[in-house]
Design a protein that fits this description.
With 215 residues, the chain is an alpha+beta fold. It has nine helices and six strands. Strands 2-1-5-6 form a four-stranded mixed sheet. A two-stranded antiparallel sheet has the order 3-4. α4 runs antiparallel to α5.
Length: 215
Protein backbone atom coordinates (compact mmCIF):
# COMPACT_ATOMS: atom_id res chain seq x y z
CA UNK A 1 0.00 0.00 0.00
CA UNK A 2 1.41 3.36 -1.01
CA UNK A 3 1.53 6.41 1.22
CA UNK A 4 0.96 9.95 -0.07
CA UNK A 5 3.87 12.35 -0.37
CA UNK A 6 3.14 16.02 -0.98
CA UNK A 7 6.26 17.56 -2.49
CA UNK A 8 6.63 21.34 -2.53
CA UNK A 9 9.56 21.81 -4.92
CA UNK A 10 10.77 25.39 -4.48
CA UNK A 11 12.91 26.38 -7.44
CA UNK A 12 13.68 28.66 -10.35
CA UNK A 13 13.74 27.71 -14.02
CA UNK A 14 17.24 29.20 -14.51
CA UNK A 15 18.75 27.22 -11.60
CA UNK A 16 20.86 24.29 -12.84
CA UNK A 17 20.87 22.59 -9.45
CA UNK A 18 17.07 22.61 -9.58
CA UNK A 19 17.17 20.55 -12.80
CA UNK A 20 19.65 18.13 -11.26
CA UNK A 21 17.71 17.94 -8.01
CA UNK A 22 14.44 17.23 -9.78
CA UNK A 23 15.98 14.46 -11.89
CA UNK A 24 17.61 12.85 -8.85
CA UNK A 25 14.39 13.13 -6.84
CA UNK A 26 12.43 11.49 -9.65
CA UNK A 27 14.93 8.62 -9.68
CA UNK A 28 14.48 8.17 -5.93
CA UNK A 29 10.70 8.24 -6.27
CA UNK A 30 10.84 5.64 -9.03
CA UNK A 31 12.65 3.33 -6.60
CA UNK A 32 9.83 3.94 -4.13
CA UNK A 33 6.96 3.58 -6.58
CA UNK A 34 5.44 0.70 -4.63
CA UNK A 35 5.63 2.65 -1.37
CA UNK A 36 4.93 6.30 -2.18
CA UNK A 37 2.36 8.25 -4.17
CA UNK A 38 3.96 11.67 -4.85
CA UNK A 39 2.11 14.87 -5.67
CA UNK A 40 4.36 17.68 -6.91
CA UNK A 41 3.63 21.35 -6.28
CA UNK A 42 6.21 23.60 -7.91
CA UNK A 43 6.67 26.74 -5.87
CA UNK A 44 8.13 30.01 -7.18
CA UNK A 45 11.53 31.38 -6.24
CA UNK A 46 13.33 34.05 -8.25
CA UNK A 47 17.10 33.93 -8.04
CA UNK A 48 17.26 37.37 -9.63
CA UNK A 49 13.95 39.21 -9.19
CA UNK A 50 15.48 42.52 -10.35
CA UNK A 51 16.79 41.07 -13.61
CA UNK A 52 15.61 43.17 -16.59
CA UNK A 53 13.68 41.50 -19.43
CA UNK A 54 16.69 41.56 -21.76
CA UNK A 55 18.69 39.59 -19.21
CA UNK A 56 22.43 39.70 -18.55
CA UNK A 57 25.47 37.82 -19.76
CA UNK A 58 25.81 34.85 -17.41
CA UNK A 59 29.59 35.16 -16.94
CA UNK A 60 29.21 38.85 -16.08
CA UNK A 61 26.36 38.03 -13.74
CA UNK A 62 28.28 35.30 -11.89
CA UNK A 63 31.30 37.58 -11.52
CA UNK A 64 29.18 40.40 -10.09
CA UNK A 65 27.08 38.20 -7.80
CA UNK A 66 29.71 35.79 -6.48
CA UNK A 67 33.06 37.39 -7.33
CA UNK A 68 34.11 34.41 -9.44
CA UNK A 69 36.99 34.72 -11.88
CA UNK A 70 36.40 33.59 -15.50
CA UNK A 71 38.37 30.40 -14.82
CA UNK A 72 36.34 29.65 -11.70
CA UNK A 73 33.08 30.27 -13.56
CA UNK A 74 34.19 27.99 -16.40
CA UNK A 75 35.14 25.23 -13.97
CA UNK A 76 31.80 25.59 -12.25
CA UNK A 77 29.92 25.29 -15.54
CA UNK A 78 31.87 22.16 -16.45
CA UNK A 79 31.12 20.53 -13.12
CA UNK A 80 27.42 21.33 -13.39
CA UNK A 81 27.27 20.05 -16.98
CA UNK A 82 28.84 16.77 -15.86
CA UNK A 83 26.36 16.37 -13.00
CA UNK A 84 23.46 17.12 -15.35
CA UNK A 85 24.75 14.67 -17.96
CA UNK A 86 24.89 12.02 -15.25
CA UNK A 87 21.11 12.36 -14.79
CA UNK A 88 20.45 12.48 -18.55
CA UNK A 89 20.03 16.22 -18.99
CA UNK A 90 21.96 18.38 -21.45
CA UNK A 91 23.11 21.79 -20.23
CA UNK A 92 24.51 23.79 -23.14
CA UNK A 93 25.39 27.05 -21.39
CA UNK A 94 28.63 28.87 -22.14
CA UNK A 95 30.28 32.17 -21.25
CA UNK A 96 28.11 33.76 -23.95
CA UNK A 97 24.82 32.58 -22.44
CA UNK A 98 22.38 34.93 -20.74
CA UNK A 99 20.35 34.72 -17.58
CA UNK A 100 16.78 36.06 -17.70
CA UNK A 101 13.96 37.33 -15.54
CA UNK A 102 11.64 34.43 -14.62
CA UNK A 103 8.59 36.08 -13.07
CA UNK A 104 6.34 35.44 -16.09
CA UNK A 105 7.55 31.84 -16.23
CA UNK A 106 6.42 31.41 -12.63
CA UNK A 107 3.03 32.95 -13.43
CA UNK A 108 2.61 30.50 -16.28
CA UNK A 109 3.65 27.62 -14.03
CA UNK A 110 1.00 28.64 -11.50
CA UNK A 111 -1.62 28.47 -14.23
CA UNK A 112 -0.24 25.15 -15.48
CA UNK A 113 -0.70 23.77 -11.98
CA UNK A 114 -4.40 24.64 -12.12
CA UNK A 115 -4.55 22.83 -15.46
CA UNK A 116 -2.78 19.71 -14.18
CA UNK A 117 0.32 20.25 -16.34
CA UNK A 118 2.78 21.87 -13.96
CA UNK A 119 5.43 19.14 -13.94
CA UNK A 120 5.37 18.91 -17.73
CA UNK A 121 5.72 22.67 -18.17
CA UNK A 122 8.50 22.86 -15.58
CA UNK A 123 10.48 20.26 -17.48
CA UNK A 124 9.80 22.01 -20.79
CA UNK A 125 11.06 25.32 -19.41
CA UNK A 126 14.23 23.67 -18.11
CA UNK A 127 14.75 22.30 -21.64
CA UNK A 128 14.09 25.72 -23.16
CA UNK A 129 16.61 27.54 -21.01
CA UNK A 130 19.43 25.08 -20.44
CA UNK A 131 19.35 22.81 -23.48
CA UNK A 132 17.91 25.06 -26.19
CA UNK A 133 19.36 28.32 -24.83
CA UNK A 134 16.07 30.18 -25.25
CA UNK A 135 14.91 33.36 -23.50
CA UNK A 136 12.43 32.19 -20.85
CA UNK A 137 11.19 35.75 -20.34
CA UNK A 138 10.02 35.92 -23.97
CA UNK A 139 6.22 35.43 -24.18
CA UNK A 140 6.58 33.62 -27.53
CA UNK A 141 8.93 31.06 -25.98
CA UNK A 142 6.65 30.60 -22.97
CA UNK A 143 3.53 30.13 -25.09
CA UNK A 144 5.30 27.67 -27.39
CA UNK A 145 6.44 25.60 -24.42
CA UNK A 146 2.95 25.67 -22.93
CA UNK A 147 1.55 24.36 -26.21
CA UNK A 148 4.25 21.68 -26.39
CA UNK A 149 2.90 20.06 -23.22
CA UNK A 150 -0.73 20.22 -24.30
CA UNK A 151 -1.80 23.53 -22.76
CA UNK A 152 -3.97 26.00 -24.65
CA UNK A 153 -1.77 28.56 -26.40
CA UNK A 154 -4.40 31.28 -26.52
CA UNK A 155 -5.06 31.02 -22.80
CA UNK A 156 -1.33 30.94 -22.04
CA UNK A 157 -0.93 34.13 -24.07
CA UNK A 158 -3.82 35.75 -22.18
CA UNK A 159 -2.24 34.84 -18.83
CA UNK A 160 0.99 36.52 -19.87
CA UNK A 161 -0.59 39.60 -21.44
CA UNK A 162 -2.98 40.35 -18.57
CA UNK A 163 -0.58 39.80 -15.68
CA UNK A 164 -2.87 37.13 -14.27
CA UNK A 165 -1.63 35.31 -11.15
CA UNK A 166 1.01 37.95 -10.40
CA UNK A 167 -0.39 38.42 -6.89
CA UNK A 168 -0.43 34.67 -6.29
CA UNK A 169 3.22 34.30 -7.29
CA UNK A 170 4.33 37.28 -5.20
CA UNK A 171 2.44 36.00 -2.18
CA UNK A 172 3.91 32.51 -2.52
CA UNK A 173 7.43 33.86 -2.92
CA UNK A 174 7.05 36.03 0.15
CA UNK A 175 5.66 33.15 2.18
CA UNK A 176 8.65 30.96 1.37
CA UNK A 177 11.09 33.78 2.11
CA UNK A 178 9.44 34.27 5.49
CA UNK A 179 9.65 30.51 6.09
CA UNK A 180 13.42 30.80 5.79
CA UNK A 181 13.98 29.62 2.22
CA UNK A 182 17.03 31.45 0.85
CA UNK A 183 18.40 29.01 -1.73
CA UNK A 184 17.05 26.49 -4.20
CA UNK A 185 16.18 23.80 -4.75
CA UNK A 186 14.47 23.42 -1.40
CA UNK A 187 12.11 20.47 -1.19
CA UNK A 188 9.46 20.35 1.52
CA UNK A 189 7.83 16.96 2.06
CA UNK A 190 4.35 16.71 3.57
CA UNK A 191 4.62 20.36 4.66
CA UNK A 192 6.98 19.25 7.43
CA UNK A 193 10.35 17.88 6.29
CA UNK A 194 12.85 19.83 4.17
CA UNK A 195 15.63 18.53 1.94
CA UNK A 196 17.98 21.15 0.49
CA UNK A 197 20.03 21.13 -2.69
CA UNK A 198 20.54 18.95 -5.75
CA UNK A 199 21.23 15.82 -3.74
CA UNK A 200 22.08 12.42 -5.23
CA UNK A 201 19.16 10.03 -5.65
CA UNK A 202 20.48 7.88 -2.81
CA UNK A 203 20.24 10.80 -0.38
CA UNK A 204 16.68 11.57 -1.46
CA UNK A 205 15.72 7.90 -1.24
CA UNK A 206 17.09 7.54 2.29
CA UNK A 207 15.30 10.69 3.47
CA UNK A 208 12.03 9.69 1.83
CA UNK A 209 12.16 6.20 3.34
CA UNK A 210 12.58 7.75 6.77
CA UNK A 211 9.66 10.10 6.16
CA UNK A 212 7.46 7.25 4.93
CA UNK A 213 8.33 5.20 8.00
CA UNK A 214 7.24 8.05 10.24
CA UNK A 215 4.06 8.78 8.32
Amino acid sequence: MTKPLTIDFISDVVCPWCVIGLRELETALDRLKDEAEPVFRFQPFELNPAMPPEGQNVAEHIQQKYGSTPDQASAGRSMIKDRAAHVGFAINTSSDSRIYNTFDAHRLLHWAGLEGKQLELKQALFDAYFTEQQNVSDPKVLVAKAESVGLDGAEAREVLETGRYAEHVRAAEQAWYQAGISSVPSIVINERYMISGGQPAEVFEKALRRILAEA
